[in-house]
Design brief:
This protein has about 130 residues and is α+β, with helices and mostly antiparallel strands. The chain is about 50% helix and about 15% strand. A hairpin with a 5-residue loop joins strand 1 and strand 2 (about 45-55).
């Protein structure tokens, strides 16, 4: 990633989080919603915002659809907040990193439990 792309990424995460609070869609509800990452195309034509939603999978999909409906508003607000020649097209994707990490922790814990002996071996007499 080029230095410029990285700077734009950091800027979009910061400004995007502020804009997210201004989106007035009741479908967003009260869940904790945050941007975990932004992938910016090399030509700065598109920006994919990765969204973390603390809710069940069905509710996550509802929030994602609400964000997709707000993409135009989001881009409009970006135009007023950042100084770029070209404002990227905004896309949203669910970030499953936390869910994947929790799953991996459960797998590792179950493997560790299976590897531990049920009781310590008794010492043998000489």
């Amino acid at each position: 990633m080029s230095h410029r792309t990285e700077r734009v990424r950091d800027l979009l995460i910061e400004v995007g989080s502020e804009i997210l609070r201004r989106v007035k869609d009741p479908a967003l509800g009260e869940e904790l919603i945050s941007f975990t990452d932004v992938k910016v195309a090399a030509d700065l034509g598109t920006a994919r915002f990765f969204v973390s939603v603390m809710a069940d999978p069905l509710r996550q999909q509802e929030v994602l659809k609400a964000l997709e409906r707000a993409a135009g508003f989001f881009r409009h607000e970006l135009r007023h907040e950042v100084r770029l020649k070209r404002i990227p097209e905004v896309r949203f994707e669910l970030d499953h990193t936390l869910e994947h990490a929790a799953h991996m922790m459960r797998v590792l814990q179950s493997a560790q439990v299976q590897a531990e002996p049920d009781s310590p071996p008794e010492p043998t007499a000489p």
